[in-house]
Write a structure and sequence with these properties.
The complex is a heterodimer of chains A (265) and B (309).
Chain A (H helix, E strand, L loop, with lengths): L2 H25 L8 H23 L4 H4 L7 H17 L6 H7 L46 E3 L1 H9 L1 H7 L3 E10 L9 E8 L8 E8 L11 E9 L2 E2 L2 E2 L2 E9 L7 E2 L1
Chain B lengths: L9 H32 L2 H7 L4 H14 L7 H10 L4 H10 L5 H10 L5 H24 L3 H4 L2 H10 L12 H36 L12 H15 L6 H5 L7 H10 L5 H7 L5 H22 L5
The chains are: A alpha/beta (265), B mainly alpha (309).
């Protein structure tokens, strides 16, 4: 395939990529794949690819371009387009239990990507009070919903387990946490616990690490793996294996839709 | 361990595959656009004039180029392909290609941030220093190889046609015509590299989703096992060099030298990169580079284990 034909083939490949990237960005599906900081590059690339595609069709080939743009035969053409289209069709835009289990659960805050040991906060004022709006003000991160439950993330409780001062803010208080259901394969002596999991991402889903806390429920909960659930209950931090572990003693577990941002960053 | 070491799911595979494609394509596109501009607007004489005559100094300068012109590992291949065609010695190009993803401010900052509280400054300096050293070593090794065993035939022809032997200067065409030619060169590189990138991402996604990564944990107890285990993991995961430090830092069970090996080997060679490199280099050279880097980085890190806890 040379000359005009290869130019048309190259333009088609760029057009397909441009359209697919535009689709991901405009539909919001890109949020299931990339950290917010990287999403804009998808939009920019989509625009550039579409422009290049049109430019190839609308410009007169240069001397070198006349002899064919690329060795783009049928096989490269299919390789450049089919996997992208097939993956777009097949991908559920989230990981299933297999990949999550293969990555191993982060159930200790020290294992969380980007974690650094907490530093002592600034001293309180002379009379011992904490100024509103400072990092020592718990109201900044202990937001309660209308029912009086602290709206927390799995990561918050993991931090609390490893940090005594933060643990006091949560311990024996009602919390509401959303995550995905996975059976607890360890740390489940009475068979009444499951893992509440969220994926923690640095760049894209490929580097996602599952962050898990335990939920204890009576009777034991059994749902399809990776079902999104909203758990309400009491935050506890029993010492297990020589360290504090976050365990929610559940009052209610309800199936729910995936949040708009399914990852934690 | 009860979990199987390999469990494949098509949906997980396609999800990981797409996420790496979406993350990597902008950088490859940037690299190929740059390569098109280099092709048309960078005079070949300029390259040869700026490079030191001393081969060792030229290779070192190749490594330093990574600081001056930082590129990620996905986008750099089309750039060095054009730079080679413009007269950059292959040895300097290899040093630049291997050093650039590590020896750049973004990687330095992310490594420092990821290892806060774990000797971040020393670890960052070690990563950058070792990365530069290994890249220069690899460049020096290439110095002694016949160019025909290193470069693919098509690339070799482009060097012969427009390299130092010929004039290599852009043809005296109007700016608009040269811009069109630059676009065509960029598109050509994009399509060529994307073929290899898609294959590499496919292999990397297969392993990163299907292999049980807890398999590596028992190897953390011995440096001699931990270092190759972490380098193998870097090869499997095929992470971006701007974020890999955050992942490496989480392998708390592994010794620091093993994490260092992960962070130096990963940006230089992984499943995805092995395929992308094949767009420019012979398969034999890519295989030798992979083995050489694995052995050299492994040995150096093992040696560093004496001083690094």
């Amino acid at each position: 395939m040379t000359g005009i034909l290869s130019r048309f083939g190259a333009s088609s490949v760029l057009m397909i990529w441009g359209i697919v990237l535009s689709y991901y960005y405009l539909s919001g599906r890109v949020a299931s794949y990339l950290h917010p900081a990287f999403r804009i590059y998808t939009a920019i690339s989509a625009g550039v690819l579409l422009l290049l595609s049109l430019a190839l069709l609308l410009t007169v080939p240069s001397e070198s371009g006349k002899h064919g743009l690329s060795n783009i035969g049928i096989f490269p053409f299919l390789l450049l387009t089919l996997p992208l289209l097939a993956a777009t069709k097949l991908s559920p835009s989230n990981f299933g239990a297999t990949a999550v289990m293969n990555r191993g659960m982060v159930d200790n805050i020290a294992d969380l990507p980007g974690f650094s040991p907490p530093q002592d906060p600034a001293l309180p004022s002379a009379d011992g009070s904490v100024k509103d709006g400072t990092m020592m003000d718990p109201s900044l991160y202990l937001k309660r919903n209308a029912a009086g439950y602290i709206a927390a993330e799995t990561v918050d409780l993991l931090y609390a387990a490893g940090e005594p001062a933060m643990r006091e803010d949560f311990e024996n208080k009602p919390v509401e946490v959303t995550g995905q259901f996975l059976p607890a394969l360890s740390g489940n002596p009475n068979g009444d616990r499951f893992n509440l999991t969220r994926l923690f991402v640095m760049c894209c889903a490929a580097d996602a690490r599952p962050v898990a806390i335990s939920v204890q429920s009576q009777p034991a909960t059994d749902l399809p793996k990776m079902t999104w659930v909203k758990v309400r209950g009491m935050a506890t931090f029993p010492v297990e294996g020589g360290k504090h572990m976050p365990v929610i003693v559940a009052e209610s577990i309800t199936e729910t839709d995936a949040p708009e941002e399914s990852f934690l960053y | 361990m009860n979990a199987p070491w390999f469990s494949f799911s098509m949906q997980d595979f396609s999800y990981a595959f797409l996420s790496v494609l979406l993350e990597g394509v902008p950088f490859i596109l940037l690299g190929t656009l740059l390569s098109g501009l280099i092709d048309q607007f960078l005079p070949a004489r300029l390259m040869t004039r700026l490079l030191p005559r001393n081969a060792f100094a030229a290779v070192c300068l190749g490594g330093v180029l990574g600081i001056v012109f930082p590129m990620c590992e996905c986008g750099i291949v089309p750039v060095i392909r054009r730079l080679i065609a413009k007269g950059l010695p292959v040895s300097s190009a290899v040093a630049y290609m291997l050093a650039a993803p590590i020896v750049n401010p973004i990687t330095a900052f992310s490594t420092y941030a990821a290892f806060r509280g774990q000797g971040a400054a020393e670890f960052t300096a070690l990563r950058l220093g070792l990365g530069f050293f290994v890249a220069v070593l690899a460049g020096l090794a290439v110095l002694n190889l016949p160019i025909g065993t290193v470069l693919k035939k098509t690339i070799l022809e482009s060097v012969t046609l427009s390299g130092p032997a010929g004039d290599g200067s852009p043809s005296p065409q109007p700016f608009r015509r040269r811009l069109i030619a630059a676009m065509e060169a960029g598109v050509r590189d994009f399509l060529d590299v994307m073929v290899y990138f898609i294959l590499g991402v496919g292999v990397a996604s297969l392993f990163s989703t299907a292999v049980n990564q807890e398999l590596f944990l028992p190897l953390s107890l011995d440096d001699r096992l931990a270092i190759p285990a972490m380098m193998s993991l870097a090869g499997i995961l095929s992470l971006c060099s701007s974020s890999d430090a955050f992942i490496a830092a989480t392998f708390v069970a592994f010794p620091a030298v093993a994490k260092l090996a992960f962070l130096v080997f990963g940006p230089m060679m992984d499943f995805k990169l092995a395929f992308i490199y094949s767009a420019v280099f012979t398969r034999r050279f890519v295989a030798a580079l992979a083995v050489g880097l694995f052995v050299i980085i492994g040995l150096l890190c093992l040696r560093l284990a004496v001083v690094l806890p």
